[in-house]
From TrEMBL:
<dbReference type="Pfam" id="PF04284">
    <property type="entry name" value="DUF441"/>
</dbReference>
<feature type="transmembrane region" description="Helical">
    <location>
        <begin position="6"/>
        <end position="33"/>
    </location>
</feature>
<keyword id="KW-0812">Transmembrane</keyword>
<dbReference type="InterPro" id="IPR007382">
    <property type="entry name" value="UPF0756_TM"/>
</dbReference>
<feature type="transmembrane region" description="Helical">
    <location>
        <begin position="45"/>
        <end position="63"/>
    </location>
</feature>
<feature type="transmembrane region" description="Helical">
    <location>
        <begin position="75"/>
        <end position="95"/>
    </location>
</feature>
<keyword id="KW-1133">Transmembrane helix</keyword>
<dbReference type="GO" id="GO:0005886">
    <property type="term" value="C:plasma membrane"/>
</dbReference>
<keyword id="KW-1003">Cell membrane</keyword>
<comment type="similarity">
    <text>Belongs to the UPF0756 family.</text>
</comment>
<protein>
    <recommendedName>
        <fullName>UPF0756 membrane protein DESHY_60125</fullName>
    </recommendedName>
</protein>
<keyword id="KW-0472">Membrane</keyword>
<feature type="transmembrane region" description="Helical">
    <location>
        <begin position="107"/>
        <end position="125"/>
    </location>
</feature>
Length: 151
């Protein structure tokens, strides 16, 4: 058994222990692909998986618009309210942070292990939801930037 398989098994069990179906499912799918020797699929996931995942995330967020569950006049009023303006600022900052996180993960992909462990800590002790490694990487990039700035 390779180190990668052992690591995926550990992540699988950690996903079960933390009641994180997303982590357990991802680890299980990768483990099955590795054991099935479907390396070409793993390469495709490595190259395009993030984009495909983000597409599905955007689809799930935009479904209320497609289903006409929102009244557009109310949408405009809400967007221009103080909460809506803060949501706009939050969205802009979050996407910027995600971009910085993606850059950080490309430079140092080993950081993903710490982000997974940190996500598990957040799930177990803080009642968090594991939405994805990009925001964790973005926050890590911000923390590193602050540390470099303080030096």
């Amino acid at each position: 058994m390779t180190r990668g398989n052992i690591f995926l098994l550990i992540l699988l069990f950690m996903g079960f222990a933390a009641d994180s179906g997303l982590l357990a499912t991802a680890a299980c799918i990768l483990l099955i692909l590795k054991l099935s020797r479907l390396n070409r699929v793993i390469t495709i996931i490595e190259r395009r998986g993030l984009e495909v995942g983000l597409i599905f995330l955007m689809l799930s967020v935009l479904v209320p618009l497609a289903n006409d569950h929102l009244i557009y006049r109310d949408l405009l009023i809400t967007t221009l309210s103080p909460q809506g303006i803060l949501a706009l600022i939050g969205g802009a900052l979050a996407t910027h942070m995600n971009g910085e996180g993606l850059k950080l993960l490309k430079l140092d992909p080993q950081l993903i292990f710490g982000m997974v462990i940190g996500s598990l800590i957040g799930i177990i002790f803080l009642g968090g939801i594991p939405i994805g490694p990009l925001m964790a990487a973005g926050l890590a990039a911000l923390f590193l930037e602050v540390i470099y700035w303080l030096k």
